[in-house]
Write a structure and sequence with these properties.
Layout lengths: L3 E10 L2 E6 L2 E6 L2 H6 L5 E11 L2 E7 L2 H10 L7 H10 L2 H10 L2 H4 L7 H11 L22 H12 L4 H15 L7 H13 L2
Helix pairs in contact: 2-3, 7-8, 7-9, 8-9
Length: 202
């Protein structure tokens, strides 16, 4: 059982990272915000969950132990596999997932790629007594520019109106937020242009 991975970040992608541990490069699937917070060449610690299938071994990485707990818990709902569980964390913070389930907010869950209205209701029904109440705090890696900032939703909506998929839009917004790194937020048109530049990169 792999609880976490600690080592030098070798490389990152929009939703993946390679961390060198003891001379071995471990490939992990991660949420876009987590990937954006990792810096190649620097050391990082990622909570990890190994998913074993008959034909594959897939390692998932998380910015915090709380994200890992939520990732594993949401998979106890029927129809939710690791791909959808990671998509949930790519779209909603752990406490946002808890709040949506606790309050029966199916609309929030349908923002997740792969989750429709019926699936959202099933998730709420099956997880209501498992996830618990929001715990507060983020922990783990310093994830840049939290999703509660209004500009994030506005830019993501703008990208989707231009034909980009929700997941691609979220990844671009996360990359722009990482570049800001606490600096003053520019006007929405400038942010949208920056996000489009991210999407146009090979």
């Amino acid at each position: 059982m792999i609880a976490y991975v600690r080592g030098r970040v070798d490389s990152t992608g929009p939703d993946s990272a390679v961390v060198e541990v003891g001379g071995v490069g471990l490939a992990l699937l991660v949420a876009p915000a987590t990937a954006a917070a990792l810096v190649p060449g620097e050391e990082a610690r990622l909570a990890a969950s190994l998913i074993v299938r008959e034909d594959s071994l897939t390692l998932y990485g998380f910015a915090s132990d709380d994200e890992k707990r939520v990732f594993e818990l949401v998979q106890t709902a029927s129809g939710v596999g690791p791909k959808v569980a990671l998509a949930m964390l790519a779209t909603l913070a752990p406490d946002e997932i808890r709040r949506a389930v606790a309050t029966g907010d199916a609309r929030a869950l349908t923002r997740v790629s792969g989750v429709g209205p019926k699936g959202a209701q099933k998730i709420i029904l099956e997880l209501k007594d498992k996830l618990g109440a929001p715990v507060g705090g983020t922990g783990g890696l310093p994830v840049p520019a939290q999703r509660v900032q209004p500009w994030r939703d506005q830019v993501a909506a703008g990208l989707q109106s231009l034909g980009w998929a929700a997941r691609e839009a979220e990844a671009a917004v996360d990359a722009v937020a990482a570049d800001l790194d606490g600096e003053q937020v520019p006007p929405i048109p400038e942010l949208l242009k920056a996000a489009l530049r991210k999407l146009s990169r090979p």
